[in-house]
Amino acid sequence: MRLLGGAKTFKNYIGGEWVDADSGETFESTSPANGDMIGVFPKSGPADVERAVAVAKEAYEDWRLVPAPKRGEILFRFAQLLTEHKDNLTDLMTREMGKVRAEAGGDVQEAIDMSFYMAGEGRRMYGQTTPSELRDKFNMSVRMPIGVVGVITPWNFPIAIPSWKIAPALVAGNTIVFKPATDTPLLGERFVELLAEAGVPPGVVNIVHGGGGAVGDALVRSPDVPVITLTGSRETGVAVLKNAADGLKHVHLELGGKNAIIVLDDAKLDLAVDGIIWSAFGTSGQRCTAASRVIVQRGVYEQLKKRLVDAVERLQLGVGWEDETDIGPVINERALEKIHSYTEIGTGEGADLLTGGEVAGGDGLDKGFYYRPTVFGDVKPDMRIAQEEIFGPTTALIPVESFDEAIRVANGVQYGLSSSIFTQDVNTAFRAIRDLDTGITYINAGTTGAEVHLPFGGTKDTGNGHREAGQAALDVFTEWKSVYVDYSGKLQRAQIDNLDE
Ligand code: UN1
Predict the structure, then answer these.
(1) Is 288 among the catalytic positions?
(2) Cβ neighbours, 10 Å, residue 390
(3) Nearest to 38 by CA among 48, 28, 49
(4) pTM of the predicted structure, to 2 decimals
(5) Of the listed 96, 288, 389, 468, which one is catalytic?
(6) Phi/psi at 446 (nearest 5 deg)?
(7) pLDDT of residue 6
(8) Is 254 among the catalytic positions?
(9) How far apart are CA 132 and CA 185, in angstroms?
């Protein structure tokens, strides 16, 4: 096993072997916290993808026949290995991705939970048995694997999200070509190393490093990859869907969010402030589920604004591996520029910049990409900062008069991932559950914190109708087969020969 420290050169893993990119080209991974070099990785292209897809296709012929409980046992061992390596992976994540230690540990834990959960699916993967309309006939449905799955993952949950896709795909009997984000290749590589150590046979999981344009696109267009699963931006999702259309592929997309927390006049304000801080600024706001809007009923608006700004100004920016740090860096310079451009947009639109709004420097922060947690007040629902995904530590306070207006504003965006409401009234809470048009709703908690055994995903432009996590994930990675067994010994025609019964 490779150890961290010093710049090491890493490879693709194809057919059970560690290999360079066909072109011999490389790219570097550096820490967003302080610029340290993390490693050098193969800059792969279509030829590498083709090779990986070919071995994955071949490996599929055996893997699909391995009993699902046995496939599950390998995932169980993988979950145990993740547990053993949790500290090490957590530390690496604070360096390669930048999130703070507690959150990095949560990211790894999410993968442990998902792997144990999907290991159990190896002994469930329930189908249906139903009565037949004819005598001496037996009906059932079973889940069948599909083939090679192209897995394209983002950098913000570099261990958790690969597990959301790879664990269910594997237990169902598919094989994998995995392209991790170029900002977090080492975490992707460690993930695959541990899967191999857990006993995944050669060719069943392959990793090909490189950019979306070269590697991702080749996967999406490959005729031998019937399933693509992507977590990324709306723009990438639309391009993937278009490029996969000619192949009539199964495409699972988990895209953006513009998630809102509603705070009503009867809310417990300190609890709401805690929920907002956690959901808006955790992972430096770089979650699809981040709360980038806070919709506040007029009666508590001034009070909430004051308490929130006070709390935000106490947050400590720094490197993720120091215990006193509350907020780590954002992922790279491009992100920093995008986030700052939204501060300018918000100010230009006439929103009230209450705190933050600048790149943070001093105390060694200049070596990384740090942005001060930013809160805008008096934001109008149609302003760009209240409509577009920023993916950074910026949130917008939107005052409203009533519950109905709050729901209208919350739903008035193109995305529909997560939502939350703070209220003490149980009737109001249930109305919100009914009326908020999102895939996930929290009552008296922020917009983040999904657990692995319930469906994860969203409505509208957040995706294309699929869900990951829980049993719903199996729908992405399996095809239903309906089976009819006629043991009457004669021809019995459905819809025709049962009419006399
Ligand atoms: C994401 O941001 O893409 O509920 C995933 C949450 C985490 C997962 C977020 N458990 O925020």
Answers:
(1) yes
(2) 24
(3) 28
(4) 0.97
(5) 288
(6) -70, -165
(7) 54
(8) yes
(9) 51
